[in-house]
Amino acid sequence: MVGIVGGGQLARMCQPPAVALGLTLSVLAESPTASAALVVPHSPVGACDDLDAVVDFARSCDVVTFDHEHVPGRVLHAVQAAGVSVHPDPSALRYAQDKIAMRDRLTQMGVPCPRWAVAREQQQVEDFGARVGWPVVMKAARGGYDGKGVRVISASEEAQDWLARARTARDGDGSPEGVLLEEKVDFRRELAVLVARSPSGQAATWPVVQTVQQDGICTEVLAPAPGLTHQVATEATAAALRIAGELEVTGVMAVEMFELSAPGEPGFVVNELAMRPHNSGHWTIDGAVTSQFEQHLRAVLDLPLGATRARDRWSVMANVLGGSEPELYSAYRHLMARDPALRLHLYGKQVRPGRKIGHVNVGGSDLEDLRARAGHAADYLRGVVTR
Questions:
Q1: Domain 187-382 adopts which CATH fold?
Q2: By CB neighbour count within 10 A (0-12 exposed, 13-18 middle, 19+ buried), where does 339 fall?
Q3: What CATH architecture is 2-86?
Q4: Which residues of the chain are in CATH 3.40.50.20 domains?
């Protein structure tokens, strides 16, 4: 049995490939109405930071993984101490949980990164801004996602409240945690490389994709990234494989990157790591021979990895964000009739404005047509358009 801690949409989307592979899936869900709990028959309720609940859940599983990075390390170590395999290992996961640790490790590896520093005092922020130029990007070391935990500042005074909070938090050595400062990168666009790696060391990647962000939330993914040079694609893929190997990641990992605007070396810098199936890979459900969700299950069980080639020349994924209209059924029927080739994936979540409640996939040979169709479907489900 494969156990997934966290009952969100990522765990939900592992259920169909689990059935196809003949696997039994179990989910430790935050509530009986969590996204995954609605489709996975065995979904006990428990919090991801409740050590006893997680360990009790894990004891019935052959392997444990998770659908987000917010499971505390002490909980995962306790699961391992109970004799249950955890993938990815907590020693790798810390680089997705702690942005300062991630930046430090990638810099040691020689992976291209934005210029960065750790600040615990306002003067350190002032010095960094003077060195790299204002504005600068300030990130919370832990807990940020979808634009949360990120702030662009134009003066050191704007960092005071975050610095005060960070001084009360402690890192693994018991020192004040601090905040991560990064230069504001002049980039052309955002890219993502999805890589899967098994405990035995087999690894596979999908085509490099372009991600489109609005207000810190991914709204669209284009696979493969249009117009990306062979050199940048090759180097970005090689960097992702190297990160997965040196950090000994198991399962699926997304390496989010900025493609640089100015010509020269390198052609990209790494922005973030996510050690789980990721929004940038949702297109693979319909657009690749093996989806990221099937591959994640294969990887954590150390099964041979599946083929990752694309099924179509282009695939487009558009995220569906919640709007003001909570009734989706009529919109769902309309889109199925209007565009039978469109693939709709809704997560069973309560609709709230701006919340990710699903996504749509479409594949074919005309990229602009695909973008228009996917974008229309997402807007229709949100209530932005009515025809």
A1: D-amino Acid Aminotransferase; Chain A, domain 1 (3.30.470)
A2: middle
A3: 3-Layer(aba) Sandwich (3.40)
A4: 2-86
Model pLDDT for residues 91-150, shown as the tens digit of each residue: 999 999 999 999 999 999 999 999 999 999 999 999 999 999 999 999 999 876 656 789
| Residue 291 CA: distances (Å) to CA of 97, 128, 230, 332 | 24, 42, 23, 23
* Amino acid symbol at 349: K
Cα 386 to its chain centre, rounded Å, is 31
pLDDT digits (tens, 9 = 90+) for 3-39: 999 999 999 999 999 999 999 999 999 999 999 999 9
CB 176 within 8 A of CB 119: no
Intervals of CATH 3.30.1490.20 along the chain: 115-183
Round to whole Å and give the CA distance between 251 and 245: 12
Q: What is the mean pLDDT of residues 26-55?
A: 97
145: CB partners within 8 A, 6+ apart: none
For the chain, the residue count is 387
Contact between residue 62 and residue 1 where contact means Cβ atoms under 8 Å apart: yes
pLDDT of residue 329: 85
Token code pair at residue 94: 């810390």
* Superfamily covering domain 115-183: ATP-grasp fold, A domain (3.30.1490.20)
